[in-house]
Amino acid sequence: MRVAFTAVPDSHLPPVDELLSIAVNALGGSERQGQITMVRAVQNAIDAEEHLAVQAGTGTGKSLAYLVPSIRHAMDSDAPVVISTATIALQRQLVDRDLPRLSEALGKELPHEPTYAILKGRRNYLCRYKASAGWPEDDEQDQLFDPREVSATGRMVQRIQEWAEETETGDRDELVPGVSEQAWRQFSVSAQECLGASRCPSGAECFAELARARAGEVDVVVTNHALLAIDAMGELPVLPEHQVVVVDEAHELVDRVTSVVTSELSEASVMLAVRRVGRLIDQPIADQLMEAGEDLKALLAAAPPGRIDELPQVLGLTLQLIRDSAWRCVTALGPRNADKDDPDKAGQRKAAFTALDEVHDTAVRMLDAYGHASETDRAEVVWLDGGTDRRPPALRVAPLNVSGMLRDKLFGERTVVLTSATLALGGTFDALAAQWGLGEAGKDWQGIDVGSPFDHPRSGILYVAKHLPQPGRDGLPQQYLDEIAELIEAAGGRTLGLFSSMRAAKAATEALRDRLDVPLLCQGDDSTMLLVKQFAEDEPTCLFGTLSLWQGVDVPGPSLRLVIIDRVPFPRPDDPLTSARQRHVAAKGGNGFMAVAANHAALLLAQGVGRLLRSQDDKGVIAVLDPRLVTARYSGFLLGSLPPFWRTTDPAVPRAALKRLTTT
């Protein structure tokens, strides 16, 4: 649905155009038409209380375009605006660079200098009470497998203890280098485990509560999609009261929300509940839950991984046993507010209730996923994750879509601005709008593309290797390796290789490392951050990798002249969630492939292609080795999701262009 915004008179504050001009001049930049269009659209959406989706290409300056009207609204309404991002990198950019400079620039034009704070989930903050109570016994089992891991974890724990004495925020991200989840969880609690500030002996100095208090006093609260989802869908608010949300990196919203509402059941989660409750109730009752967990372990070890469309009788009986024995443990624990005057006992009981509730509720949810009369009535999918050498098998359950949740809990109650460089798939916003539930949110919405400051046809070539065979399941064909080698030689290195799997990235690295005369790095050789830094600083270097590189690399300048994409990034056919979603759409009469697989591929492909041009002076080639991008029936949809690069299927064209760039 596309609508025109209703004009709303300006307040007593300076117009948003004027504020943007002041901000851009103070930051030493220049105004861009796309940025001006976006800042006006965001302001109009806020004034009219209508939702807005904005596609803004790299280099548009979209952060300023939404921050300026957000700050203006916060001043005008005396209520904070929430900015939600998908990545830590963007959160840090906003809090450490954009907002400080913007606050200083606009301070003299507004009633006060704009204030801001970052707010994360409770598990991201050190719990003073848990830190003072020592190493919890219920996690001891995690340390028994590898002595080297125990030693490494012990050193991390010691670092956290030393840091805990000096930190002012308790924010895990302050710990550099970082620590493992195994070590950190000895010092953190989830929202469900927390005793609450009024009952906890350390409540008055709780880092999480202090962060939330700071967030309640500022104009702009920066958070992440996961916490935004928890706040919108939970019973208790975790963010300050707000009416306007800006969702940056909005192409990630559905996946992040899905992760929040996905639950897991495993032998480990059951045994954790047993350990936490074991000393608080009669042993025979706890033993029943332990036996159910052992049954689950044996069942999962023997079952094949993958989607579970029909509930096997033995699995159904095991889930019922876990559900019932967990509930008996909950009943045996007695009232939830017992021992409220004894923090130690109250903490033990809260931890036990949390673990038991998770096990019980997940078992109930999995049982409820079955028994529907038809595929169209199914709401959730259950699958077995086969695990790895370090992670045992686990059952997972997730919703087939989250559009209803977003519609009711996020879009139905607030004004939301969604923005990203990639939102218009196949040339329209319809695909993502449907996933968000926007069309049914009870408010009007508009989708606009403010363009890009880059001249794509003059700056880059999109080359599709139409002459190559279609990719198969047996790894990279020799023709693909030859094509990659020749392109890299023409570019003199300077190549980012984006592969659909880590196996393909490693195979290409092994096959080409000795063949090429330029340094070749592969994701996994070192931390991704260090690899990207090395790639950016040494021009001839090439970097191969997979998913995080498709979306997380920002390397302007001559170090990146060539982006190679091995294949159209469709989800794996055996991926339980996406395959179930495809089938569900098809059962309702839709095109499951286009609605799920093609949308996924278009989104990721556009993100990968976006790695090439990161500044006005960048030039280069994007080489897609998969001929389906121009030969398949869905190719028009995929190409319509990409920037308007000059296109060719002639192998000589990109090679000649790369050689010219190398010699200039």
TrEMBL record:
<dbReference type="InterPro" id="IPR011545">
    <property type="entry name" value="DEAD/DEAH_box_helicase_dom"/>
</dbReference>
<dbReference type="Pfam" id="PF00270">
    <property type="entry name" value="DEAD"/>
</dbReference>
<dbReference type="InterPro" id="IPR014013">
    <property type="entry name" value="Helic_SF1/SF2_ATP-bd_DinG/Rad3"/>
</dbReference>
<dbReference type="InterPro" id="IPR006555">
    <property type="entry name" value="ATP-dep_Helicase_C"/>
</dbReference>
<feature type="domain" description="Helicase ATP-binding">
    <location>
        <begin position="21"/>
        <end position="293"/>
    </location>
</feature>
<dbReference type="GO" id="GO:0003678">
    <property type="term" value="F:DNA helicase activity"/>
</dbReference>
<dbReference type="GO" id="GO:0016787">
    <property type="term" value="F:hydrolase activity"/>
</dbReference>
<keyword id="KW-0347">Helicase</keyword>
<keyword id="KW-0067">ATP-binding</keyword>
<dbReference type="InterPro" id="IPR045028">
    <property type="entry name" value="DinG/Rad3-like"/>
</dbReference>
<comment type="similarity">
    <text>Belongs to the helicase family. DinG subfamily.</text>
</comment>
<dbReference type="InterPro" id="IPR014001">
    <property type="entry name" value="Helicase_ATP-bd"/>
</dbReference>
<keyword id="KW-0547">Nucleotide-binding</keyword>
<dbReference type="InterPro" id="IPR027417">
    <property type="entry name" value="P-loop_NTPase"/>
</dbReference>
<protein>
    <recommendedName>
        <fullName>DNA 5'-3' helicase</fullName>
        <ecNumber>5.6.2.3</ecNumber>
    </recommendedName>
</protein>
<keyword id="KW-0378">Hydrolase</keyword>
<dbReference type="Pfam" id="PF13307">
    <property type="entry name" value="Helicase_C_2"/>
</dbReference>
